[in-house]
Amino acid sequence: MRTIEWDNGTLKIVDQTHLPHLMRHLYLKTVDDVIDAIKTMKVRGAPAIGVAAAFGCVMGITRLEDSAKRLIAARPTAVNLCWAVERIMKTARPIRNLPLSKLEPILIAEAQKMAEEDVAANKKIGEYGTKLISKGMRILTVCNAGALATVDYGTALGVIRRAYDDKKNIHVYAAETRPRLQGAKLTAWELKNYHIPFTLITDNMIGYHMQKGLINIVITGADRVALNGDSANKIGTYGAAVLAKYHKIPFYIAAPFSTIDFATVSGDDIVIEERSQEEVFQIGCERIAPTDIQAANPSFDVTPAKLIAGIITEKGIIRPVNIKKYAPKKS
Questions:
Q1: Do the beta carbons of residue 183 and residue 144 sit within 8 Å?
Q2: 137 within 8 A of 217, measured Cβ to Cβ
Q3: By the 8 A CB rule, do 107 and 92 touch?
Q4: Please, what is the end-to-end C-alpha distance for the chain in angstroms?
Q5: Spatial separation of the C-alpha atoms in residues 15 and 26, rounded to whole Å
Q6: Is the peptide bond before 304 cis (omega within 30 degrees of 0)?
Q7: CA dist 17 to 37, 64, 87, 119, 186, Å?
Q8: CA nearest to 148, candidates 187, 114, 102
Q9: Which H or E element spans position 199?
Q10: Pair 208, 235: CB distance under 8 Å
């Protein structure tokens, strides 16, 4: 399922705010359209918003530097967004004096290349990750790290899809992921469409299912991995990792190598996006909380490296303590 496609100046995306009830596509024509889609989570998932932003740069080519800054500011936690924009800018800056008619196709080609690289990386992640899955395993995942969070195939769900295709007789436990319910709305929708056996659970059922011996491994995505291996992912991931550690269940991150931010020393340096209180006050259009109260809504939390068994990337499975070995050498 292709979630992002470029077609003659228009970016076609799956509008994820309508799932699971309606499969609807949006056709983005301006950089403002892309920024709005990212902010409102019509397109979401670190790899997906990165590629969307790359095409957004193309749309904002007449004011490229300004467009790049605005796109990077759209959501602060996912490093793939900044990485993708910077890659486009690195391509553009040496040739910025070219006529737009010549510059634009070069940037489109670079964005297209990033999209194809994402799909290939996800499939490699699945290939490496399936080696961790034994027959009959029951796998917990948090939030949505499937095709919807990428250009196609998925990261954590990419591992699960590959294990299912390898006939490993797996069963998935998908946490609902309050407050926006990406697990209930998106992961459950994907797993159902892939015909992978799964059970949807509320976030506060994770400990119960681990205590009962119903979960053998945890695999989630990530939005940013620091140099020391600390990893930011959807709020609730840290709690799942703590519970996994207590119950001696291995906890893995599945993410493309571009999610590793070598400039961020530790999780303490990761900016955590704070979203609107309204997301906590209501489910869908129905308000579930009293009026005139306050709510907190951090969109992500940070799982310390010591709780992570490994990071599954397209380059292989990397132990958090070994990330520094992959850091670019300073010139």
A1: yes
A2: yes
A3: yes
A4: 41
A5: 6
A6: no
A7: 10, 29, 28, 23, 9
A8: 187
A9: strand 198-201
A10: no
Q: Tell me the C-alpha distance between 31 and 80, whole Å.
A: 18
| Residue 274 DSSP one-character state | B
DSSP assignment letter at 319? -
Cα 290–Cα 292–Cα 295 angle in degrees, nearest 5? 80
pLDDT along the chain (331 residues), means of 10: 92 96 96 97 95 96 95 92 96 93 96 97 98 98 97 98 98 97 98 98 98 98 97 98 98 97 96 95 93 97 98 98 90 61
- List the one residue out of 113, 112, 28, 102 whose CA is nearest residue 71: 28
**By three-state DSSP, how is residue 253 classified?**
strand
The Cα–Cα gap between 65 and 87 comes to 13
Report the 10 Å Cβ neighbour count for 11.
25
Delineate the domains of the chain, giving CATH numbers in brackets. Answer: 4-122 (1.20.120.420), 128-326 (3.40.50.10470)
What value does the CA radius of gyration of the chain take, rounded to a whole number of Å?
Answer: 19
DSSP letter assigned to residue 187: I
Tell me the C-alpha distance between 173 and 197, whole Å: 9
Is 223 known to be catalytic? yes
Catalytic option among 223, 230, 261, 301: 223
In which element (H, E) is residue 301 found? strand 300-303
Q: Report the alpha-carbon distance of residue 128 to residue 142 in Å, rounded.
A: 20
Go through 127-153 and write b for each residue having 16 or more CB atoms within 10 A of its CB, e for each that does not: bbbbebbeeebbbbbbbbbbbbbbbbb
Token digits of residue 278: 């309204």
**List of residues 6+ apart from 46 with CB closer than 8 A:** 78, 79, 80, 81, 149, 221, 222, 223, 224, 255, 259
Residue 179 in tokens: 């407050």
Q: What is the torsional sign of CA 121, 122, 127, 133? A: positive
Helix (H) / strand (E) element for 252: namely: strand 251-254
